[in-house]
Amino acid sequence: MTLPTDTENTSRESRPRRQKRGNKTARNVLLGFAAVVLVVGLVCGLYLFNLAQTFNNGSNKIDSAFPEESTRPQKTEPVNGTAAMNILVMGSDTRGSDHVDLETNAATDQRSDTLMLVHVPADRKNVYAVSLMRDLWVNIPGKGESKINSALAYGGVPLVVQTVESLFQQRIDHVAMVDFEGFKGLTDALGGVEVDVKIPFAPASGPMKGHYYAAGKQTLNGDEALAFVRERKSFSDGDYQRVRNQQAYLKSIMSKTIAKETLTNPVTVNNMVSAVSPFVSVDKGFDASAIGSLALSLKDLRPSNTVMFTLPTLGTGTSADGQSIVVADKTAIADIAAALSKDQLGSYVSAHALEKGN
Predict the structure, then answer these.
(1) In this structure, what is the dihedral angle of CA atoms 329, 332, 336, 339, given to the nearest 10 degrees?
(2) Which long-range contacts does 227-234 make (Cβ < 8 Å, 24+ apart)?
(3) pLDDT tens across 195-234, in order?
(4) Which residues is 309 bridged to in the sheet?
(5) 3-state SS class at 165
(6) From the centroid of its chain, how far is CA 344?
(7) In whole angstroms, what is the distance from residue 171 CA to residue 164 CA?
(8) Mean pLDDT of 187-201
């Protein structure tokens, strides 16, 4: 029998040691990887927390945004655990007018220059934004017939909500009021926004007086964007074109906001939230957590899935007391109300070829 040599014994004795060292190395690598993941997660968590705090602390809260519950439509029933959502967005321009009293909702001379009903279907595959002309002649609960934008002056935010809920017989889930001044900071935070100018114009007054907006795609800075969404006197159909311009701007903002280069840049995202928060007022339930949850449910949304159009009307006219008004198309209102009640606004849009607006 041949006895093992010293070399063989040494080799055999060394194998377990190498295996132990290998196991220890692998374990250290895994622990190091876990530590990196933990640190990254912690940093991301702190960043998101700070982002949420920036919005919650910077934005204004509307203490009483909704009317009495007994006057409101029923809540929408969930489909597969998710319910359709209606958000009322009010755009206001504080130039030359008193600020809305968000604490008491007392009547002021403030009027909502822009009114938009944003409908998010239960399947979260699209977003629809219906603009309501500010001079639309409607019934304002408890006040009679008047321009829809006067509801804010008559009874604050709750009366605006009640007016829109009465118009479409649909419940408003959240409210957001945005001061036009916020568009300036948001645009600059994004490094400018490209907008397709359909009708060239030059404002006759204001900070951008004489600045020429040429037809075609233009990259606007904050001041240019603010004047773009404000202007109406330069157009033959006045507020109709202003609403179209506002919709074009909002679509451009959305496209750039959800772009990969924006969402992957923490500095840009933080600048956006910091710039716009002071100019946003929301109902108490529409905080950073609720907005983040909604954004997560819309993670697959693309600009092409967002449809913006203006509530069809019968044109302009004169009220019995001599006011220049926009005449409501009651058939269109009834059809949209029916589509909303079935969560089938997309079918109405397709039937009336409104995918690209009107």
Answers:
(1) 160
(2) 227/203, 228/195, 228/197, 229/91, 229/180, 229/183, 230/93, 230/180, 230/206, 231/201, 231/203, 233/204, 233/205, 234/201, 234/202, 234/203, 234/204
(3) 999 999 999 998 999 999 999 999 999 999 999 999 999 9
(4) 130
(5) helix
(6) 21
(7) 9
(8) 94
Q: What is the pLDDT of residue 258?
A: 79
Radius of gyration of the chain (CA): 28
Q: Is the pLDDT of residue 299 over 90?
A: no
- Of the candidates 286, 246, 253, which has an alpha carbon nearest to the alpha carbon of residue 134? 246
Q: Find out whether 334 and 168 touch, Cβ atoms under 8 Å.
A: no
Full DSSP string of 1-26: -PPPPHHHHHHHHHHHHHHHHHHHHH
**339: number of Cβ within 10 Å:** 19
Single out the residue of 177, 49, 124, 172 nearest to residue 294, CA to CA.
Answer: 124
Q: Which amino acid is at 72?
A: R
Beta strand segments in 172-236, E? 174-179, 193-197, 216-220
Q: Which residue has the tokens 């300036």?
A: 184
pLDDT, residue 80, reads: 81
Give the model confidence (pLDDT) of 34-66 as tens digits. 665 555 555 556 556 777 888 888 889 998 999
The C-alpha atoms of residue 147 and residue 135 are separated, in whole angstroms, by 5
Q: What share of the chain is helix, strand, coil (3-state, %, to 5)?
A: 45, 20, 35
Q: Which residue type, as a one-letter code, is found at position 153? A: A
- List phi, psi (to 5°) of 183: -65, -35
Q: Of 165, 14, 21, 176, which is closest to residue 91 (Cα–Cα)?
A: 176
Q: Taking a C-beta distance cutoff of 8 angstroms, is the pair 54, 275 a contact?
A: no
Region 241-258: mean pLDDT is 90
* pLDDT digit string, tens, across residues 76-107: 888 788 999 999 999 877 654 444 444 444 44
Distance CA 166, CA 157 (A): 14
Res 77: pLDDT: 83
Phi, psi of 291 (to 5 degrees): -65, -40
93: which 2 tokens? 């321009």
Q: Which amino acid is at 67?
A: P
Beta strand extents in 180-312 (DSSP E only)? 193-197, 216-220, 280-283, 306-310
Residue 332, helix vs strand vs coil: helix
* Single-letter code of the amino acid located at 110: Q
Examine the pLDDT at 357 and tell me if it is beyond 70.
yes
Tell me which residue of 175, 164, 168 sits closest to 343, measured CA to CA: 168
